[in-house]
Amino acid sequence: MNNLLIILFLLTLISCKKQELESAVILRKEILKPRIEPEGKPTAIDSTLLISFNDKILTSFYKSTEYRTVWQSQKKRKIILEELLKSDEEGLNPEDYKVKTLLDLEKKLNTLDSLALAKYDVLLTSSLQKYISHLTNGKLDPRKLYKNWDLKENQIDINKTVAQLLSTDSLLFKIEQLKPNHIVYQRLKKALKLINTFPKDNFKNLKFGREFSPNDSTAAITEIKKRLIFWKDLQPTDSLTPVYDKEMVLAVKKFQIRHGLAPDGIIREGTIASLNFSKEQRIQQIIANLERWKWYPKEMGNEYVIINIPDYKLTLVKNKDTLRTHRVIVGRAKRKTPILSSKLTQVVFNPTWTVPPTILREDVIPAILKNRRYLSQSNIKVYDSNGRIVSPYEWQLSQAKTYRYVQSPGTFNSLGMVKIIFPNRFSVYLHDTNHRDYFDKIDRSLSSGCVRVDNPLELTEYVLNDSVNWNLEKITETLQNEKTKFVKINKDISLHILYWTAWSEKDKLIFRDDIYNLDANLYSKLRN
C-alpha cells in the first residue's frame, strides 16, 4: 500500500512538473510575441473590421497592438504615402496599394469619425505590408511561374518590419534599406527614369527586305534615321537625307553596341527588330527586369560569380569590384539554362562526359542510327547495366535507353579540359568546350543547358587560389596526362546564374535580346 502511495505521488509530481513545463513554454511564447505600443492617442479598432481584409498577417499585427490604431504620426503617414505614390520608380504599380483612397482619407483626416480613422489605419498598414512584400520578394512568385527557376524566397518578417518602421526616427532610410541594393537594380531604376524622359513615339514598324550598308540610298534610310534620333544615337539635323552617310554609320554602331549586336554598321534583320521596339515596350521590359531583381538574393556574397544569360557574360565580383569577365555560351531556347544560386565546390580536370537523357534521346541515338561509327568518332563508350562495354555493332535500339554513354577525356571531349561543379538539381555546371570558335558568335544560346566558359583555365586558377599547386603551369601538366582529377575548391565563392535583358550605363539605355521570351509575358502577369 505504501509503495502504491509513493508511486501515485511520483506520478502526480511528474504530471505537475510536465504541466509546469508546458505552461512555461506557453508563457515563453507569449513573452516572445511582439507587443506594439502605439504612440500618441490611438483609436480602438473593432476586430470584425479586419475580417473583410481576409489577411492573417494583418490581423496578427493588430492583435499585437491590442486592436488600436498605430499611425498617429502625420510625419510618418506622409512618408509612407509618398513612398507608395512613387512606387512606380521601383517598377511597381501604385494602384496595388490603394494610394488614391489613402490620399483622399488623409485629406479628410480631421473630419473622420473613429470608425473611419480605424479603417484608414488598417488600410494604410495593409498597403504598407503589401509594399514591403513586393519590395523584398516581388509581386509574383518565380517558383510558380517557371519550372527551371530555383531561387530561395527572401526571408522577411513583415509584422516585425512594420513594428521597426513604427519605432524608428529614420523611417525613410529604413524603407530604402528594404529595396534591392545590387548595382544592376540601381541601373534598372536609372534606365526607367531615363526612358521616361523620352518623348512619345508613334513610329510604324520597319519591314526588313534587305541589308543596308554605308552609302546606300533609299527612303527606308530616312525612317531609320528618325528612330536613331529618337533613341539619341544620332544627332538631330534640320533635314534628313535618304543616304546612309558617315554620321549614320557611327549612330548605327552605337545603337548596335547598346543592344548587344555586332557593331559593324551593317543594318540586318536583328538591328531592324531592335529598332522596331517602341518606347512603351522598352518600359515594360525594364519593369519586368525590376521584378526579377526583387526575386534574386539580397546578399550575393562577398565574392561571387554572376552570369547574365541574355548577355552571354560571366563576371567575377569581389568586395563589389569586378575582377574579371568571361564570355559564355548558354542553353538554347529549347534547353534553357536554369536560373539558380549555389556555391562553387569542385574542379574536374580532364572530365569524362556522361551523356544526359535529353541529349541521348534527341541527339545521340538518332546519330547512331544514321552511322554506327558515330560512337568511335565521338570517342564514346557504351556500357550495359552490368558495366560491360557494348560494341557499336552489339548496340540495339530496343536497349538504347538502358545503356550508359561515356565520352573519354581529351581535347575532343564535349566538356573540354575542365569543368567547375556547384550543387544544383538540374545537373548543370560550368565547363570548357571543344568548340571554342563559338565564343566569337554574337548569339551564343547554343548549349544544352550547361554554361560553357571562354578561357576557363584562368578562371579555374583563380577559384582554386593556390599559386603553388594549382598555377597555370601545374594545371597544364595535369591536363597533359589526360587522367581525370578532382580538386576541391576551398574558397567561399557563390554562383548566381540569372536573367536580365535591360539596364543603363553612363546615362545610356542598354538592352539585350530576350532569348527565352520571358519579358512580355511577365509584364502582362504583373499588370493583370
TrEMBL record:
Key words, A-Z: Cell shape, Cell wall biogenesis/degradation, Peptidoglycan synthesis, Transferase
Statement: the UniProt record of this protein carries the keyword Hydrolase: no
One Pfam family per UniProt: Scaffold
PROSITE patterns, sorted: LD_TPASE
Keyword Lyase: no
GO molecular function terms listed in the Swiss-Prot or TrEMBL record: carboxypeptidase activity; transferase activity
InterPro entries per the UniProt record, alphabetical: LD-transpeptidase_YkuD-like, LD_TPept_cat_dom, LD_TPept_scaffold_dom, Peptidoglycan-bd-like, PGBD-like_sf, PGBDSf, Transpep_catalytic_dom
Highest rank taxon of the organism: Bacteria
Start and end residues of each L,D-TPase catalytic domain: 303-471
A Gene Ontology BP annotation from the UniProt entry: regulation of cell shape
Active site: H431, C450
Pathway linked to the protein: Cell wall biogenesis; peptidoglycan biosynthesis
Record family assignment: Belongs to the YkuD family.
The protein's name: Peptidoglycan-binding protein
Organism of this sequence: Flavobacterium caseinilyticum
